[in-house]
Every structure is written in C-alpha cells, then in structure tokens.
UniProtKB/TrEMBL annotation:
This is 3'-5' exoribonuclease Rv2179c-like domain-containing protein. It holds the Pfam family Rv2179c-like. Residues 5-171 form the 3'-5' exoribonuclease Rv2179c-like domain. InterPro entries: RNaseH-like_sf, RNaseH_sf, Rv2179c-like. One of its GO terms (molecular function) is nucleic acid binding.
Length: 208
C-alpha cells in the first residue's frame, strides 16, 4: 500500500493567508523501508517574493519576533529568488520520484505552495489527487498501536519553526503510523479486531 517514495513538505512564511510570502521550504523524501532518504531546504529572498505579489502580514511578523533566535536566524539569512527556490524543489521532487506529498495542514503549506507556483508561472510537480494531510491521521486514536507501547507523541524538532527540522519531525511521526497501517493491510486474515478473537496467532501485528 505504501511502497513508493513519499514527500513531506513544511513551509515557514511571512503570512498565513494563501498569498503569504514563503520564507523557507523544507522537505523530506521517505519510504517505509528506508525512512528518510533525501532532504531539501531553501531560503527564499523576501524582497523577491514580494515582487511576485506575495504578502507580508503584520501579525505574522509580530509572531516571529517572539520565536527563538535560532528560528529567526533563517528568516534573515541570504536567500534565493522565489522562482529559483521553487524550480529547485521541482527538480528535487522529480529526482526522488515522489508519488504523494504530505503536509501537516494542506490548507496552509500546500495552499501557499500552489499560490507561489501560480505567481511564478510554474507547474507543481504533484497532482491534486496526490496531496495528503497529516492532521487527518492525527485525529485517529490508534488504540491498537498504542497498546503495543509505541510512543505516538511527535518528536520535537532540533529547532522549532525551522522548515526542514519540522518536516523531519513530522515524517518520523507519520512513518510510525504508515508502517503500522501497512502491516495491517498485509495481514488481511487477521481477526484481532473481531469480538470473538483476541491475539490471533497468525497475525504478525497482534499475535503472540
């Protein structure tokens, strides 16, 4: 079910609206067998982003001023043009043969990415049907997985609000759940979820 390379993307921005200027793009390429196999990170020049019609929102600026020095450092570092950053992302995405793209909230990260692609006259490397939302999986309680003793709490990134560190942290959390789901689908004969059975010995997930 999850046999191909997947992409996790995270953005840090100067605004939460879809036209907000992108500050940094962080992403990982991963699969169930090997985990994270490739990383992507680019800092976007804010002046150039504004020239493309992206906006800076005062409330977001105030929010950034309250964040750590390490997080703010990336915002003022030298960046590249918005179109160049997006072109680099497209090349990296295709080189890694990503089949689906994940973000913590598609109404934020993917929406801003799509707006930036449109503003720079670029075609996104993914289709709308390829987009996946991490929040959807977080809504599940995962009672069977929790019963195995697996820790589902998100691993804290090295630096909060660093696009690459956040993408890596989200990937680690997602991999635990996807690997578990993959095992369930491979054990179609499993009866552990039926009231009359407990710990089906033929099930590699619940048996024993």
């Amino acid at each position: 079910m999850f046999e191909h390379n997947e992409i996790m993307v995270d953005l840090e921005t100067w605004g939460r609206q879809p036209d907000g200027a992108i500050a940094t793009i962080g992403a990982t390429c991963f699969n169930l067998k090997d985990g994270v196999i490739s990383e992507f990170y680019e800092i976007v020049d804010i002046t150039n982003a504004v020239k493309h019609g992206c906006t800076i929102h005062p409330e977001t600026m105030k929010w950034w001023l309250k964040q750590s020095k390490s997080a703010r450092h990336e915002l003022v570092a030298d960046g590249i043009k918005l179109k160049a950053a997006l072109e680099a992302f497209i090349v990296w995405y295709r080189q890694n043969k990503g089949t689906r793209i994940w973000s913590r909230n598609i109404l934020f990260d993917i929406a801003l990415l799509n707006d930036a692609f449109e503003k720079t006259d670029l075609q996104a490397p993914y289709k709308y049907r390829d987009v996946r939302d991490v929040y959807s999986l977080e809504d599940l309680k995962w009672p069977e997985l929790i019963a195995t003793g697996v820790e589902l709490i998100r691993t804290a990134p090295v630096v909060w609000h660093n696009a690459l560190q956040d993408a890596k942290s989200q990937t680690e959390e997602l991999l635990i759940k996807l690997r578990y789901l993959d095992l369930l689908f491979k054990n179609e004969h499993c009866t552990c979820f039926e009231p009359a059975y407990e710990n089906d010995p033929t099930c590699s997930v619940h048996g024993g």
